[in-house]
C-alpha cells in the first residue's frame, strides 16, 4: 500500500533490522527498543488492524508468533518473559496503520515498560456482565 511505512520496509525500500522473514511475515527490531530485542511481527499483506484479518491470514500470522517469541527468548538468558501487544486504532495507541504485533522481552521489574490494567470489578455486577456478553454474542454469525 502506498505511503505505508511497513509496506516500504517489507519491500526493502526502507531498511530494517530483520530477525525473521518468510513468504507471509516479516519480523524486525522496533526502532524504539522499549527493551532490548523489542520486535515487530507484521504480515506482508497490508491489513490495517486486527479487524481486517480473515481466518487464513490470522492462522498464518499467529502460527509464527510462538517460534519468533521463542527465538528471541532463547537469544538471551536474561530474558525472563515477554509482553505481546497489538494496538488497534488510534484510541488504542496504534500509530502505524499496518497491523503488527509487538514482542517485548522482559528482563526485570525495572524494565521501562508499563501495562497495568485498571481493576473495575467492584463496578460490574453479574447482570451488567451478562448484558455486555449478550450484546457481543449476538454478533457471531455462522
Ligand atoms: P504502534 O504504536 O502502532 O503500536 O507501534 C508502531 C511501532 O512502530 C512503534 O513502536 C515505532 O517505534 C515503530 N516504528 C515506526 N516507524 C518505524 C520504522 O521506520 N522502523 C522500525 N523498525 N520501527 C518503526
Ligand atoms: Zn502496509
TrEMBL record:
Source organism of this protein record: Liquorilactobacillus sucicola DSM 21376 = JCM 15457
> Where does motif Histidine triad motif map?
98-102
**What lineage is on file?**
Bacteria, Bacillati, Bacillota, Bacilli, Lactobacillales
Q: Where is the active site?
A: 100
Q: What is this protein called?
A: Histidine triad protein
User: GO MF terms on file?
Assistant: catalytic activity
In the record, biological process GO terms are: nucleotide metabolic process
- The HIT domain extends over 5-115
Q: Which SUPFAM superfamilies match?
A: HIT-like (SSF54197)
Q: Which InterPro entries match?
A: HINT, Histidine_triad_CS, Histidine_triad_HIT, HIT-like, HIT-like_sf
Amino acid at each position: 500500500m502506498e505511503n505505508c511505512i511497513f509496506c516500504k520496509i517489507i519491500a526493502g525500500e526502507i531498511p530494517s533490522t530483520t530477525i525473521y522473514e518468510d513468504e507471509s511475515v516479516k519480523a524486525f527490531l522496533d526502532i524504539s527498543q522499549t527493551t532490548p530485542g523489542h520486535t515487530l511481527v507484521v504480515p506482508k499483506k497490508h491489513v490495517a488492524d486486527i479487524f481486517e484479518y480473515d481466518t487464513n491470514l490470522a492462522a498464518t500470522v499467529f502460527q509464527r508468533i510462538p517460534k519468533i517469541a521463542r527465538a528471541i527468548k532463547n537469544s538471551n538468558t536474561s530474558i525472563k518473559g515477554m509482553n505481546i501487544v497489538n494496538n488497534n486504532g488510534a484510541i488504542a495507541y496504534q500509530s502505524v496503520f499496518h497491523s503488527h504485533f509487538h514482542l517485548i522481552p522482559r528482563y526485570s521489574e525495572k524494565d521501562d515498560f508499563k501495562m497495568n490494567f485498571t481493576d473495575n470489578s467492584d463496578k460490574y455486577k453479574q447482570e451488567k456482565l451478562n448484558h455486555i456478553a449478550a450484546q457481543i454474542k449476538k454478533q457471531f454469525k455462522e
